[in-house]
TrEMBL record:
InterPro entries: Maltose/Cyclodextrin-bd, SBP
Main location group: membrane
GO cellular component entries: ATP-binding cassette (ABC) transporter complex, substrate-binding subunit-containing
GO biological processes: maltodextrin transmembrane transport; maltose transport
Membrane topology: Lipid-anchor
Organism per entry: Thermoactinomyces vulgaris
Signal sequence, start to end: 1-20
Pfam families recorded: SBP_bac_8
Protein name: Maltodextrin-binding protein
Name of the coding gene: orf-3
Localization: Cell membrane
Record family assignment: Belongs to the bacterial solute-binding protein 1 family.
């Protein structure tokens, strides 16, 4: 994924976004008439995180003070919002702004749940390029980013004094220190989950879908290519040589790390507060170079999107800009720990001089966005099952990947019918 830690000095966002536009300049004007000012806008925010919810409520209140428009913030689980909008939107009960990870964007657009947003380049240019690309589908921008995520190497400073410089050194460290009989490990991660192992496939040159001129081709799946088989061979070594448990879940990884039984894990920023609360002195670093190249991980971007059912797209877009202003995202970072993909903030000492956050930011700068086309939805289960079969020794990497891709193609074909 392309680098995003470049400098950009953008100011006075709040003033700009709250400045009224004349009817002739209103990009959302319908039939030559501007939409009326709403009494209320509705926002759906993550129901699974009270801190995120409260932060959004706080800034919604600030928007109300400045505009006089009431904002109702409703808690709805991230992965349930599309389903809920499908039902509530046509009934006039949906939200104006919704939020979910960007890899579900293509599915939402295909279902007709979202409408493109109209914002000036001065707004677009505030944000990291890769985050903006993640929220673009079919050449149209559907939202603005509020957080960017990537896994990185999280280590216990008490147990790992120096981070391995290369992937080979990291693997050898794991081999020497992984002692499953004692429930002690040098390195632990969910190696049966493609989200965490993608960097091993990418290092060998494998791609999920073939990309042509910036467009992904769902008919060209690269997950059983010779390069992908090499990647899965590397995954297999973590089970056969580094002795990772065959069925490893997040709860186990987190529990052992918090108990001081693991020197390092591959995990994301969502885990940090829990680790620190357990008294672990954590460090964060990008994954070590693999085959002489930067390790490429999947990047996830959380964005605000404009509902296709919103009756007030212009004002809802102003609210979206307000919630992703420099001030709002700085506040969100301080309260939630979510890394804001806003160029100026990424270079702010608050983030740049924070070694934990900067470790994730550096890794994210080397990553690639998860594919957001609808067909990505049928990739996860087959590829993760392939990981499990390889981990259990039931199939070779080549057999497991061939079977997985066959299932993916069948499901994609079914989607087209």
């Amino acid at each position: 994924m392309r680098k995003f830690l470049s400098l950009a000095l953008i100011s006075a966002l709040v003033i700009g976004l709250l400045t009224a536009c004349g009817p002739k300049r209103d990009p959302y004007a319908k039939a030559g008439k501007s939409e009326g000012k709403p009494d209320k806008l509705v926002v759906w925010e993550n129901a699974d995180d009270g801190v995120q919810l409260n932060n959004t409520k706080k800034w919604a209140g600030e928007f109300t003070k400045k505009t006089g428009i009431q904002v109702e913030v409703v808690p709805v689980a991230l992965l349930k919002q599309q389903e809920k909008l499908t039902l509530d939107g046509p009934a006039g009960k949906g939200a104006d702004l919704v939020t979910w990870p960007h890899d579900r964007l293509g599915e939402a657009v295909t279902k007709g749940l979202l409408q493109p947003i109209q914002v000036d380049n001065s707004v677009k240019n505030q944000f990291d390029d890769v985050a903006m690309k993640a929220l673009t589908y079919g050449g149209k921008l559907y939202g603005l980013p509020k957080a960017i995520e990537s896994v990185a190497l999280i280590y216990n400073k008490k147990l790992m004094g120096q981070v391995p410089a290369t992937y080979d050194e990291l693997f050898q460290y794991a081999k020497a220190n992984n002692k499953p009989d004692e429930q002690k490990y040098g390195v632990l991660f969910e190696a049966n989950n493609f989200y965490y192992t993608y960097f091993l496939f990418a290092a060998k040159g494998a791609a999920v879908f073939k990309e042509q001129d910036g467009t992904l081709d769902p008919n060209e799946i690269g997950l059983n290519s010779p390069e992908a088989v090499q990647g899965m061979n590397e995954v297999q070594k973590w089970f056969t040589e580094a002795r990772l448990p065959q069925s490893l879940k997040a709860d186990t990884v987190n529990g052992l790390f918090k108990s001081g039984k693991v020197a390092a894990v591959i995990n994301g920023p969502w885990a940090i507060k829990d680790y620190q609360a357990a008294g672990i002195n954590v460090g964060v670093a990008p994954l070590p170079k693999i085959d002489g190249k930067d390790a490429q991980t999947f990047i996830g971007v959380k964005g605000w999107y404009l509902s296709a059912y919103s009756k007030y797209p212009k004002y809802a877009t102003e609210l979206m800009q307000f919630l992703t202003s420099k001030e709002a995202l700085a506040s969100r970072f301080k309260e939630t720990g979510e890394i804001p993909p806003q160029k100026e903030l990424l270079n702010d000492p608050m983030i740049k001089n924070n070694p934990v956050v900067n470790g994730f930011a550096k890794q994210a700068s080397k990553g690639v966005p998860m594919p957001s086309i609808p067909e990505m939805g049928v990739v996860w289960e087959p590829i993760n099952n392939a990981h499990t079969f390889v981990a259990q020794g039931k199939q070779t990497p080549e057999q497991a990947l061939n079977d997985a891709v066959k299932i993916m193609k069948e499901k994609i074909q079914t989607m087209k019918q």
